[in-house]
Amino acid sequence: MAPNQRSGGSGEDQLIARYFRPLAKHPGALGLTDDAAVITPPPGCDLVLKTDGVISGVHFFPDDPAALVAKKVLRMNLSDLAAKGATPLGFLLAIALPRDTAETWLAAFAQGLGEDAEHYGCPLLGGDTDRTPGPLSVSVTAFGSVPEGTMVLRSRAKPGDVVVVTGTIGDAALGLRLRRDRAAADRWNLSADLRHHLLDRYLLPQPRNVIAASIRAFASAAMDVSDGLAGDLAKLCRASRASADIDSARVPLSGAARTALAAEPTLMEAILTGGDDYEIIATVPPDRLQALETAAAGTGVAVSEIGRMRAGEGEATFLGADGNPLAFAQPSFSHF
Amino acid sequence: MAPNQRSGGSGEDQLIARYFRPLAKHPGALGLTDDAAVITPPPGCDLVLKTDGVISGVHFFPDDPAALVAKKVLRMNLSDLAAKGATPLGFLLAIALPRDTAETWLAAFAQGLGEDAEHYGCPLLGGDTDRTPGPLSVSVTAFGSVPEGTMVLRSRAKPGDVVVVTGTIGDAALGLRLRRDRAAADRWNLSADLRHHLLDRYLLPQPRNVIAASIRAFASAAMDVSDGLAGDLAKLCRASRASADIDSARVPLSGAARTALAAEPTLMEAILTGGDDYEIIATVPPDRLQALETAAAGTGVAVSEIGRMRAGEGEATFLGADGNPLAFAQPSFSHF
User: Which of A166, A185, A191, B84 has its CA 20 to 30 A from that of A19?
Assistant: First the structure.
């Protein structure tokens, strides 16, 4: 490949006009016809900024439905906004397409993206489209707002705080295993419904944006669980310079995960250390726990108490049924 | 490649800590230890948002110095902020690295990036690092601010406005030709100095951020020239629903470009339609031209009058020495 000069000519313009301009409903997107987007931040608010992306063959399977790839990459970023207590404002999209990308793929991608932009109130503001000799990749930069000074950090957990987590943990990790090893569904005694639940949780995150305001109101610290509960909680502990004791039996599991775990107890490690949960882990001062639970109940998102912060050097300890700490072969997933 | 779960583990953490954390001097970057960055927008200001990136082998040569790749991708985005009249606030970085990327490459990349972040007052706020089976790619999302409602658009040029351009046009296009065909330097009668000038203009854009405030104060419309003067001006004309008549002889050329053009007059098309200029094209009401020129003179950036807007359907016409329009084989560069 010899470098050419930068792209931006008529081919890109046509793709953008056909598939992405209909999504650019925010006035600051300027119909994707200018060089930049412009937004007026809500008065008295801070802007929360996040960028995260996916690469075909690394973060998703090349034959995953394009609409779900679009939703996944947007939701990965929305999940971070939720954990920081932020309300979505919009996003920029950078997409690198192999030359053989079918227009039907792009049409489905744009449709999925538009559905989620609408659903989460997070409009497309602008972007960048390129051709690549490599795998298809998509990067999203998402913007959210919080009242000034109220972004929820990882680093403010205090000894005595209750550790809570939203939803259920481990479904996506099991879903990915099923994706690679279809026979596992039989070994794990999974009905078709339970199998679909796990596969779906891997394909399509359910970010917890509906409880972002409650996290902001009541949590001392929070982050989204994307690289595995054990590893992410350890990051929160290190940032907060405090330790956590987690009762593994209280980590909330779906019916599907419970069924699989009953058949194959060693799956506990995959459940606690696998990634792609897109739940929120938060620490809450005990006197605010009731208020958080009440607020969460109104949103339909389960919030489960799983342990406590204590003074310590930043360790996250998962206690097994016998009261002894679990040992993990690989506490957190890394591509590196 | 089988997808794994998302990255973010210890390998990425170590890379970030070693090479990028030292660049994250803005308090809102939180030392790159949280999930998101946070900025407090200046009161009464709009936020200008831009994302643009480069892929190895597409937008730069794999053996280009890493520090210059870093500077180029940041400057591409800074150039857009300048053309929109915006003051840089900071940027997010998304980088996808092949597994065999040398740490020395990354160290040089981070050093170049840090130098420019400092020089342009545009600090690193956060980012995303991934491994890729494809070519190395870097995407920047840059943020700037303008007083509310004052972002300079493409779409506000009016018949009668003067068309101006900063700096010199065509150097990068000629520099790229030299990069591919070293023998051209002799055909074009270029001394070593002139050859270096052109090669350097391709490798390292000089975004015109020092005149951003003047553009905002005096221009009716503006955009940066990144896909070739002819094509970009045509975009501005279409967005403004007006046409432009440009006197090709008045398009400002460097001594190097003039020398090459004298030896090979057909280079005029490459000069006017090649990309990577990273200059600003602006339209200015005649009664503000003097004020813009005075303001620009104080910054050291040349501003040259090259034509006029007129009523029309959005054509950009480049008139040759004989008064007839030039015809271009390919008015604007596109990878598509």
Answer: B84
